[in-house]
Design goal:
Strand content: 25-35%
Oligomer: single chain
Largest sheet: 11 strands, mixed
């Protein structure tokens, strides 16, 4: 049984699971699917196209599956898909997709802090922390376990690798490869995210290999040659392959 405040509005065409708590002044539109055990504090809005999993917590003012802030959007049917056990804090806004990808995706076990924004067609992994007032532009991809500090501005179409730490106040239009700290002005490589990796269970040997991989790639005048050297030094090491593949696949270039 759901606990719905009499001061909330739930559209009759919305589909609700079980054991949800919906506070006063919440608004749940048509074409919304809400799973089980979610908690919506007061003044939360789930717009059409929202697809919400289980065990999420939405704080006051959160607005989910909003109309994309993209002039190419012509009212096509798109979605905003959110996984399980996310903490979505006050005034967070997440747009639904456009015809480009047709959906915005947020994984599970993320902490999205107050007043941050995720634009249309983004793909956010799981286990991420995104700080207060950070703005993620359209069609950005963020891999699992990334940490993005407060007031960061991320350009559209960028990709952010897993296990990174991006320092507060950064703004960038290049990709951020995995396992690193990115910061300063302009945003650049500032070493390996050693503390974050240790917290995630990486051994000193694994961290040393990651560190040496970046030294090998960045010290070489030609990145392609550095990647080849790194692969030859550490064949079949998945972290090395992740780094190399990330840089090879980058369309915008990576910070250095």
């Amino acid at each position: 049984m759901n606990n719905i405040s009499p001061m909330a509005f739930v559209h009759p065409d919305a589909k609700l699971g079980d054991n949800n708590e919906i506070g006063p002044f919440c608004y749940i539109d048509a074409d919304v699917v809400l799973g089980d055990n979610n908690k919506l504090y007061n003044s939360v809005t789930l717009h059409q196209g929202a697809r919400i999993g289980n065990g999420n917590e939405f704080f006051p003012g959160a607005s989910i599956s909003t109309k994309p802030q993209d002039l190419k959007f012509k009212g096509e049917v798109t979605t905003c898909e959110i996984g399980d056990n996310n903490s979505i804090r006050e005034n967070v806004t997440i747009s639904r997709g456009t015809a480009s990808r047709a959906k915005t995706v947020v994984g599970s076990n993320n902490l999205l802090m107050e007043n941050m924004h995720i634009a249309h067609d983004c793909i956010i992994g799981s286990g991420c922390i995104i700080g207060n007032s950070t703005k993620i532009a359209g069609e950005v991809e963020i891999d699992d376990n990334a940490i993005i500090s407060a007031t960061v501005l991320c350009h559209q179409f960028c990709r952010i690798g897993g296990y990174v730490m991006i320092q507060g106040g950064c703004r960038f239009s290049l990709d951020i490869p995995p396992f690193i700290i990115a910061g300063k002005e302009p945003t650049r490589y500032c070493g390996i995210n050693i503390i974050g990796l240790r917290r995630r269970g990486y051994t000193n040997e694994q961290i040393d290999i990651i560190h040496d991989t970046y030294r090998t790639i960045y010290a070489n005048g030609i990145i392609k040659d550095g990647i080849a050297e790194a692969r030859s030094k550490y064949p079949d090491v998945k972290e090395v392959e992740y780094i190399c593949r990330f840089i090879e696949d980058s369309k915008r270039g990576v910070v250095r």
